[in-house]
Specification:
single chain, about 950 residues, alpha/beta, 23-stranded mixed sheet, seven-stranded parallel sheet, about 20% helix, globular, disordered C terminus, Leucine-rich repeat receptor-like protein kinase
Length: about 950
């Protein structure tokens, strides 16, 4: 060891001398940059060319001038620029090397991962004209001393983690033109001194935690052309003084908690092209004076509390492309003059109280691209020229009072991608020429008065994914024979349409997941070829005239979860293979002519008896028991003889068992281990399981009664194992409840695969899901769609426990750490029922398992309380998911009056734009969370009601 120690010292001395020699041969700039490089983390070797070759430097030039990111003067003797942008660098900058760069003009380290405090030494670079530190992770207060940069023109610190107040001294930078401090955690008010800039053209302070009132002094910024100060938490109104910013072209104060009316003085901004004031609490009328701002191209006042009509004077806004007034309380009719605007492309006025008809010439004079007037009180027909511009790709008119035939102009609208006309009173035939609509993917014509059947050429809409004509009672016709051949079709809904004929064969249906055809007059059999629909999740053929047997192959569909064949004339038996389905959650064959016994699979036994009612020839759990096997012995006398023999044999077996029991009792045995397997676990013996525990890996405290460990079973299956112990004569009630837990199968519940037990304890074996739980990943950045799917998955799992298990199984301990993820990041509820199991083990609840009260079908008070507690916990989890863990235990403190502000925060956090279709979903989900966390338990919705709300089945707003 001594030899190695000496060798190490010699090598260290050698490298130290070598480095000194190299640096000695280098110029001060290169030495400083090499010192800077030594501080950085450069995992991608972006600065590989930063090195000094050995030898002398007779020319006196700067080595660094030939390195990437370094800019020098013409003679290569002075470094004047340093651009390390997008080099994938990280680390903490000390700033000690910067004293050398007295002539530096441009310093850009943007789009990296630098952290820690911004080094104050940067402010000694007095010749700097541009400082760009954007898109890093600098934290702490923004350091003082920036007025030293007397020549600074650009200060870009966008998207960091700065905190504390904005530095008022920044306003001393006389030549500053660009100020970008957005996307950090700055707090406090905007300094009034920020109104004193003389040359500022661009100011961006959005997306911070700024509060207080917007200083009226900002109106003194006569040179600013672009101002973004929204997505903060101001108090008060929009200062009328902002109407003095004579050069401003872009003004964004969205999502800022502003109240009061819109100042008419903003109409003095005669160069304004974009005005965004959405997601505030603005009230009153839209100033008619806005018509003076003839340069206006985008006007978004959505998601406020504005009232009154659209000003007639808007006819003067000849350059207007976007008009968004959605989510307000506006009323009146849409001015005909709006149809005269030659540049109008996007019209969003949904979720208001508008009435009357849409302008007759809407679309005639401009190239409309997107029109959404849904959820109002409009009547009349679709404007005939709506698609005249040839570029309309979304037409959304649902939930109004439109009448008349569908416009023929829709047939000549090849640009259409989405068409939503549901919940109106349209009549007549569907005029769509699907051969002309090659791009359309979503059509909803449900809840109207349409007739004439489904056009047979629908099979030519090659990109169609969603088609819904349900609840058109006089539609009639048949199902087009080629409908299932649409390669992208996922949802086909035509319920309550008086459709006749038979189901077309499913020759090619690779993508379809939902088929809803209940309440029609379909006849014939269910085609065997339904087995080709491998993506099918829901098939609802209830209330038709179908006959024949249920196809055996339907049971093989891998993800089929809901089958409703009730109220038909089906006969034969229920295919036994349905009992092997791991995805099936609902099978309803009630009121048919099904015979035989219900397959003995536990999944079918757990379904409600109502799912099998109305089939007099059907028997077995959960219906009446099937007739006994006595008849197989022939005559009654022979049967009686057999019964006597069986009774005698039973007595002998009982006596023998009793003697063995006494023998084991006297030896003090605790009883032998036994194994119960549910669906999904091979038939191991108890000894196989117990031997596997020799190599367990603990994942929670092993001393806990509910300790969790990981075990590898003989075939290599990895499982999570929970141990539970009990005393007294609790074995029967414990095993009964564990069996109920094991029979609860849903894709959003973690599977209980089996349990190994003796008289006093049990090991419960669960699926092992390695992707962690929600509590661990709550701060992980996700898009809104991913968050919505997490909330929906949790709701589905909990709804199954509450409403599809008989009796209901309260979760008992719903929290984010008990939501685990599989390999596809699908949420699964863990620990469900375990709290109740522990209570049973300790004898703190009666041994009789809680059930619905006889006669009434209602839950007893104890179960009600637990179900209400689950709903509350679900609401709390929604708050956590929506805010990335920022709001925990929020239900007890959040008031309804705060919900609007919270929606704005959440939309900001999820980067949902003003015209995003996700806004409605965010509002909806937040409303559900508020309902679920009401203080009075009986005021909370059931999980069934909550799930309907989350799925969009909410009641009409008006």
């Amino acid at each position: 060891m001594e030899i190695f120690h000496v060798l190490y010292l010699n090598l260290f001395v050698f490298f130290t001398m070598f480095t000194a020699a190299v640096f000695g041969a280098a110029d001060p700039y290169s030495e400083a940059l090499l010192s800077l490089k030594s501080e950085l983390v450069d995992d991608f070797n972006s600065l590989d060319d930063w090195f000094v070759p050995p030898g002398e430097n007779p020319s006196g030039k700067v080595f660094a001038c030939f390195w990437s990111g370094v800019k020098c003067n013409k003679n290569n003797t002075i470094v004047v620029g340093l651009n390390l942008s997008m080099k994938k660098l990280s680390g903490v900058l000390s700033g000690k090397q910067l004293s050398v760069f007295n002539d530096l003009v441009d310093f850009n380290i943007s789009h990296n991962s630098f952290s820690g405090q911004l080094p104050v030494q940067i402010f000694n670079l007095t010749n700097l004209r541009s400082l760009d530190i954007s898109r890093n992770n600098f934290s702490g207060h923004f350091p003082g001393g920036i007025p030293s940069l007397v020549n600074l023109v650009v200060l870009d610190a966008f998207s960091n983690s700065f905190s504390g107040p904005l530095r008022a001294e920044i306003s001393q930078l006389e030549f500053l033109k660009v100020l970008n401090l957005a996307g950090s955690y700055f707090s406090g008010p905007i300094p009034s001194q920020f109104g004193s800039f003389k040359r500022l053209e661009f100011i961006h302070l959005a997306g911070n935690l700024l509060n207080g009132e917007i200083p009226p002094e900002l109106g003194m910024l006569k040179t600013v052309t672009h101002m973004e100060i929204g997505y903060n938490f101001y108090q008060g109104k929009i200062p009328w003084q902002l109407g003095s910013m004579s050069e401003v072209q872009y003004l964004d104060i969205a999502g800022a908690n502003l109240s009061g009316s819109i100042p008419k003085e903003l109409s003095n901004l005669t160069k304004l092209e974009s005005l965004f004031l959405f997601r505030n609490q603005l009230t009153g009328l839209i100033p008619w004076e806005f018509s003076r701002v003839t340069t206006l191209k985008s006007l978004d006042l959505s998601d406020n509390r504005l009232s009154g009509p659209i000003p007639e004077s808007f006819s003067d806004l000849k350059n207007l492309r976007l008009l968004s007034l959605m989510y307000n309380e506006m009323s009146g009719t849409v001015p005909e003059s709006l149809a005269q605007l030659p540049s109008l492309e996007i019209l969003f006025i949904w979720n208001n109280f508008f009435s009357g008809s849409l302008p007759e010439n809407l679309g005639r004079n401009s190239k409309l691209r997107w029109v959404d007037v849904s959820t109002n009180n409009f009547n009349g027909s679709i404007p005939p020229y709506i698609c005249s511009g040839g570029v309309l790709f979304k037409l959304i008119l649902f939930s109004n009072n439109f009448t008349g035939n569908l416009s023929q102009s829709l047939s000549n609208c090849p640009s259409l991608v989405r068409l939503r006309l549901e919940d109106n009173s349209f009549s007549g035939e569907i005029p769509l020429k699907f051969s002309h609509l090659s791009d359309i993917n979503y059509i909803d014509l449900s809840r109207n008065k349409i007739t004439g059947g489904i056009p047979p050429d629908i099979s030519q809409a090659s990109n169609l994914q969603y088609f819904n004509v349900s609840n058109n009672p006089k539609l009639g016709g048949t199902i087009p024979p080629q409908i299932w051949s649409l390669q992208n079709l996922q949802n086909f809904s035509a319920s309550s349409c008086n459709i006749t004929g038979s189901l077309p064969p499913f020759k090619s249906c690779k993508s379809i997941s939902v088929i809803e055809l209940h309440m029609n007059s379909l006849s014939g059999t269910i085609p065997e070829t339904v087995s080709n629909c491998e993506e099918l999740e829901v098939i609802d053929l209830a209330n038709n005239k179908l006959f024949g047997s249920i196809p055996e192959k339907m049971a093989k569909l891998p993800i089929l979860g809901v089958i409703d064949l009730s109220h038909n004339n089906l006969s034969g038996q229920i295919p036994a293979k349905f009992g092997n389905s791991s995805s099936l959650t609902v099978l309803n064959v009630s009121f048919n002519d099904i015979s035989g016994s219900i397959p003995s699979a536990k999944a079918l036994k757990m379904m409600a008896s109502s799912a099998f009612a109305g089939n007099p020839k059907l028997c077995g759990a959960p219906l009446r028991p099937c007739p006994g096997s006595v008849a197989i012995f022939g005559s009654k006398s022979k049967g009686k003889l057999v019964l006597v023999l069986l009774l005698c044999a039973g007595v002998v077996i009982f006596v023998a068992a009793a003697l063995l029991g006494i023998f084991f009792f006297r030896r003090g045995s605790k009883g032998q281990w036994k194994m119960v397997s549910f669906l999904g676990l091979p038939q191991f013996t108890a000894n196989d399981i117990l031997r596997s525990f020799n190599s367990t890996e603990s994942t929670e405290g092993s001393e806990s009664q509910a300790a969790v460990c990981k075990a590898v079973l003989p075939t290599g299956i990895t499982v999570s194992v929970k141990k539970i112990e009990w005393g007294g004569n609790r074995l029967n009630v414990m095993s009964e409840f564990i069996t109920r837990m094991g029979n609860a199968r849903h894709k959003n519940l973690i599977r209980l695969l089996g349990f190994c037990y003796n008289k006093h304890q049990a090991y419960l074996l669960y699926d092992y899901l390695p992707n962690g739980n929600l509590a661990e990943k709550i701060r992980m950045k996700r898009d809104w769609a991913a968050k919505y799917n997490i909330v929906l998955g949790i709701a589905r799992g909990l709804c199954f426990l509450h409403h599809d298990c008989f009796p209901a199984i309260p979760h008992g301990d719903l929290k984010s750490s008990n939501v685990v993820f599989d390999e596809n990041m699908e949420p699964h509820l863990a620990e469900f029922g375990f709290k109740h199991l522990i209570q049973l083990a300790h004898g703190s609840v009666p041994a009789k398992v809680a059930r619905r009260e006889s006669g009434t079908g209602e839950f007893n008070n104890g179960i009600k309380e637990e179900l209400h507690a689950d709903v509350y916990g679900f609401g709390e989890i929604i708050f956590e998911v929506l805010t990335n863990g920022r709001l925990t235990s929020a239900g007890s403190s959040l008031k309804n009056k705060q919900s609007d502000g919270l929606v704005r925060e959440i939309c900001n956090e999820n980067e949902v734009g003003s015209i995003s279709s996700f806004q409605e979903e965010i509002k909806l989900v937040l409303d559900v969370a508020i309902l679920c966390t009401r203080s009075i338990p009986s005021d909370r919705p059931s999980m069934e009601e909550a799930l309907k709300l989350l799925s969009g089945l909410k009641p009409q707003r008006k």
